[in-house]
Structures are given as C-alpha cells and as structure tokens.
Structure prediction request, 287 residues.
Amino acid sequence: MKGIILAGGSGTRLHPLTKVVSKQLLPIYDKPMIYYPLSVLMLANIREILIISTPRDLPSFKELFADGADLGLKISYAIQEKPEGIAQAFIIGEEFIGNDDVSLILGDNIFYGAGFSKILAESIHKVEVSKKAVIFGYYVDDPERYGVVEFNQAGEVLSIIEKPKDPKSNYAIVGLYFYPNKVVQAAKKINPSDRGELEITTINELFLGEKEIDVQLLGRGFAWLDTGTHESLNEATEFIAAIEKRTSLKVGCLEEISLSKKWIRREEMLENIKGLKGIYYDYVRKL
Prediction:
C-alpha cells in the first residue's frame, strides 16, 4: 500500500500565520505539523509516500524531507495548482498510486491513542483482502462542521453526509482513509459539489452504495485533533506538550519509528542528525 499526504490549501482561517508559510509546516510543540500525519503512515508500515502541496509550498517540504532516505522512506512530491477537493488527491496521485491500494491522510490531522498501530494494520488487511474501504469516525460536539456518518441500531452504516444541517449522529469522519485501488477511477468519475470541489464524502458514498466501506470508530483513549483554527492549533500544541512531558516519550518522532522498524541503522541516524540541536534531536540521540 502507498500513502498520500494532502498538504495543500491556503490556510485562510489561520491568516496571517499562513500568508507566507504552509499551514502544515507550522509548529505543533517541537516539530512541524506534517510530522504527525507522516508518522501515522509510517506506523502503518507505509514507506512509499506522496506529498501533495501548492506550487509555493512544495519546495519547503522537499527541503524538509528530501527523498525520505534519511528515514528509510521513498518520498515523492506533486503540485496541487488550486484546491479542488480532497478527492482530487487520487487524480493528482494516479501515476504514483499505480496498481496499488492507497491511504490518504490530511496534513493537518493529528491522531494519538494506545493500540493505534494495530488498528492501522487491521485496516490495511481489510482493504487488501476484502477490497473494502476503511474510514474513521470520531465523536464531536459540532458534527455539522464535518462529514457525518449515520448508523442503524445494529451499528451498520446507513449514510455519510457532508456538513449536514441536521446531523444524524455526532460521529465525524476524520482525515484518514484507506481505499482499494479502484478509488482512482471513482475520483475521476465524480462531479464537483455545489462549492466546486471533488468531495471525499462523495467517494465514500460510492463505496457505501456498493457495501464496500467500513467505519472504524475511534473511542475513548483516542484523540483526534484537526488544527484548522487558531484555537485548535494552540490546543494541539498544549496537548502534545502535556503528553510528552508526562510520558517522557515523543509523539510523532519519525526517527524513532524508523529505528523501531529497522528501516535505518543507529549509526546512519546519528550521522543524519549530526550537528542538529534542540529538544527533539536531544531525544533522538538518547534512543
């Protein structure tokens, strides 16, 4: 399976912070925001990754990660000329995806919870074996801001509605998706919504209509942070800082994941970070 990080958009809700820098490069405590979604793909054992961003911001991501070899990854890059919906990522990434299944994660989403790696592995297995899509739901107080999933009494998915005026549940669809390869052709067939975007909810509705989608609920013990506003950006920073100080462990430490999976050797890692300073690299040296 291959992975895509969608890190485009203009981040207008975060102006003036994002007038000259990508939202996904803003700091969440001690590391850039994009470290967190990248760490999710790495925890899912996905090593071939495409970062999609704007013409202005893509060079910054290339400077940050290069080809990904320092992390045991193979990172590619693609331009999104203008934001035309989340589902556009599959069209932009068609050549990168090839004949593989694919995971898509939004560059401003942060996930934290025990046992997350197991859930990711189970999701990939379901896609590869059953050819079903797997998306994730999370309980929120303001579901009208999100795509919302409706269940029947047996827990089966009845509908997925984008920003409903009368939400049928409080479970929002979060920015992490696993799809079989046919999602590429599905994205090429759908029409833009009233707001002119290729909606990921439309993709999910297509899979639902064919009974080829499962919704994995992230319950108690999990945190999902959508860092699209100044308030949520600050909350995410405070959350990560508190977790790391309490546990003395890093969240979203890419080098730590690579080392644990033996994608890079200790000697290589130490050479890669030689001369780099700060609390993040002090932590990496102690691994």
Remarks:
- The radius of gyration is 18 Å.
